[in-house]
Design brief:
Blueprint (H helix, E strand, L loop, with lengths): L8 H23 L16 H23 L4 H19 L2 H7 L5 H30 L2
Helix pairs in contact: 1-2, 1-5, 2-3, 3-5
């Protein structure tokens, strides 16, 4: 399989699901729709201008994941970006800055959302590795 070929079907579907998810996240941030999963830190103080900036940045994920769904060579970059996101969210979850606005409330809901995103990362990684193995064995 050439590197410019699309990824295997299941991986491609999973990547398109990411495109849909990130589109919804961008819309939620742009309009300030604070729903869990689309807005990880949905119940903390925020500035509307920051969320508009986040919405534009999330469009980069949309483009990255769409490119990966079309071209297998781009899949590792999408997976790495998502992995860094999980690490970044984890860092925020344990930060003093987050703790200072929670007034003693638990971070459990943020960890649950981070865990779901980590699960999506693991799914993509597993599907990618399986596809690469299958590709090597079919040569």
């Amino acid at each position: 399989m050439a590197s410019n070929d699309p990824p295997p079907v299941l991986l491609r579907l999973a990547l398109w699901a990411g495109v849909a998810y990130f589109c919804c996240m961008a819309v939620a941030h742009f309009f300030g729709l604070k729903y869990p999963l689309l807005f990880v830190y949905y119940d903390v103080p925020f500035y509307a201008y920051q969320d508009k900036i986040i919405s534009f940045a999330v469009v980069a994920y949309v483009c990255l994941f769409a490119n990966a769904a079309l071209h297998r060579i781009a899949v590792p970059a999408a997976i790495v970006a998502l992995g860094v996101t999980v690490l970044g969210l984890s860092s925020v979850n344990v930060s003093d800055a987050l703790g200072s606005v929670l007034d003693g409330r638990s971070t459990r809901v943020y960890w649950m959302q981070t865990g779901l995103i980590a699960g999506y990362f693991a799914l993509l990684l597993g599907l990618y590795v399986a596809g690469e193995r299958a590709s090597r064995h079919s040569r």
